[in-house]
Amino acid sequence: MEAAASAHELGTIRTFVTFHKDGAFAVDLIVDREHLPPGFGAAVAGPAPRIEGLTPELEKKIGGILFEACRGARPAFDGRPAAYRISLARVPGETEAALAATAELRLLIQGTIPPGARTFTWSNPVPLGTYMLTLESEGQENVERQWLENGKESTPFALAASIVPPTRAQVIRTYLALGYTHILPKGTDHILFVLGIFLLSTRLKPVLLQVTAFTVAHTITLALTIYGVVSLSRSIVEPLIALSIVYVAIENLTTSKLHPWRIALVFAFGLLHGMGFAGVLTQLGLPRSEFLPALISFNVGVEAGQLTVIGIALLLFGLPFREKPWYRSRIVVPASVTIAAVGFYWAVQRIVAAASS
To answer: How far apart are CA 59 and CA 38, in angstroms?
Structure first.
């Protein structure tokens, strides 16, 4: 008799918790109606939980059972209860009559894993004796099973780092570094463009005016492209970025003064470079919960990288030699010719690659 009763207890309710890499968690709560005690769900104490997909007709037939099964459900991360929503799981095409008569009812409890969470616990005070809790993380082979008795809280389950969303501070640090390394050392084309800006004049003010125009421009298109407002094919953007390098370098050979059109063109080129930055961010991905901090941090990292390039150039060439009478002939001209040649080579290479793809 005791064995039979135990078997019935083990079959009344089953709970499966899955943690996903996108930062969501899902709890499958399966109730076996055949083994429920008499009168279960006849009178639910307290307010009934909201269950998505539960129609008035279904609520009359199985609402009490569902409310009783989940009214005290408590998913928690690091001891703090998590927000969640509950929905009634249905087989596609299943009629309400068939669902109301089915032996097993399934509730789906869904929510978001808090950034930086380390452990998960589950409790459900429904008086159904002993039941099994199964926990697993997406992409992990290990599955943990726990037996819970009399509504007790589960043993803390350690969350895999791959499924826990990062905190805001972690997002800022990560995307600052990504933005910076996209310039130094990875962004050779952007480095050459910034050096082309630097070489125009020995004075710092013209450099800062151009960098400001460039910064404002690529900030605009970076944001608009990421948000999907504007879009331009990479096969068009990349050759144009290379040609922008060629133009800036060639103009350094024809003038040593900052003309108004130079700032306007640098601004236009900045719009192109912003689309290039956006392509990198699209490949890297942005966390949905911290989209704006990640976007801003990446842009700040890019600016820090550009300022570092200018600072290094100033220390190596500007400050020691800019007052020398041969500064332009021995540094500006050879460097600009080299930059123009490299930019032209890249432009041809990217155009050919785009045409053959």
So the answer is: 19
Helices 291-313 and 188-199 cross at an angle (nearest 10°) of: 50
Residues 231 and 189 in one domain: yes
Q: Are residues 305 and 331 in the same domain?
A: yes
Nearest to 18 by CA among 140, 107, 117, 126: 140
CB burial readout 315-327, b (16+ within 10 A) else e: eebbeeebeeeeb
Query: Which strands form 74-77's sheet, in the order they lie side by side?
Result: 80-81, 74-77, 119-123, 157-158
3-class state of residue 146 by DSSP: strand
Q: Look at the chain and report how many structural domains it folds into.
A: 2
* Interatomic CA distance for residues 88 and 107, integer angstroms: 5
Residues 246 and 344: beta-carbon distance below 8 Å: yes
For residue 325, the one-letter residue type is: P
Model pLDDT for residues 112-148, shown as the tens digit of each residue: 999 999 999 999 988 777 888 999 999 888 899 999 8
User: Which range marks the domain in which residue 330 is found?
Assistant: 168-356
CA separation for the pair 238, 228 (Å, rounded) = 19
Residue 76 is encoded by which pair of tokens?
A: 């928690």
- Going by DSSP bridges, is the β-strand pair 119-123/157-158 parallel, antiparallel, or unpaired? antiparallel
User: Are 131 and 15 within 8 A, CB to CB?
Assistant: yes
pLDDT at 251: 93
